[in-house]
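INFO batch 0412 | record 1 of 1 | parsing
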Amino acid sequence: MALVISHAAAEGTLIEGTSKGDNSIPILKLNGWRWSRNLGSWYIQRSRDTAPKWHIINSTAEALRAAGFTVDVDVDDTYRTTAEVEADKIARQEDRVGALTDKAHTLAVREDAADQRAHELADRVPFGQPILVDHYSAPAMRKHYEKVHMASRDAIDAYRATQRAAGRADAAAKTTEYRYNPNVVARRIEKLKADQRRTQRSIDGHTRTLFVHDGVKHVEAHDAATGTYRENLERESGHLLDQIEFWSGVYDQLVDDGAAVAYSREVITKGDHITYDGRSWHQVVRVNTKSVSIPSIVGGSWTDKVLYINIRALRDDKAQPVAIVDGARQVAVPENA
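INFO prediction complete | emitting tokens
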């Protein structure tokens, strides 16, 4: 039976046809594959909704063929839309939270039973009752105290297991919330835009200045991509643009809902005060494209920069709170004005 290495956006990269004892496992482990009990298959980590990891796929296929296996490779490099990916992630995360919550509940029941068992055994002997060494009951008492010790140990272990499971369930429940945090979304958009610009430069070709000597620029030229490489880059660029569009829509909705504020050079002026930690305020000495400059936070002669996406609140030069309404600054009027 031939082994089949497959890749699709929704499933990631998997291998089918392996069986216990067929000598494929050492090869898969050596090439970075991992076993999933949920999938019942070997898989490549973080391969879902990404470009095929051809270096792993090809090296695995070559090693398996060298070991005498017949290997077929079936790759679909079509991306899903970001909306589909996110809906799938949220659904899987909800399933994970449910499973972890059920596990924590089951462990809590076991913990209660183990604790009750330990108390029942301990209550059978008066508190502080010593073992009468020379008495005929000594062996039975030692055995009983050993049971109490073991039951108490089981109760403690059950408690710790319950706490771990509850912590994992709580962390899993916050994963989606964190992914849609305004600052996280804003940083994700900036990174995606940078990746897309870099990809587009590779498609179009570009030059960059390495250094300048005696007024002469020494540049490094990169030709426009061609052939299969260009097709892959164009596919990747389209995928990045789709992600940018999706997350920009998410951020716009966060702004409309009041969960985020779209600070920019259009609404902040020199002399304003900003806070990025919610505790200290800093005067704006310069307004830049993506950030504002503030005096050094450690008292140096230089300035520090704070990205707009990290600003938490804004005041004008008279320390009056400034709100951003429909893309325009609105200074709060003092009550006694």
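INFO post-check: The two ends are 84 Å apart (CA to CA).
INFO record closed
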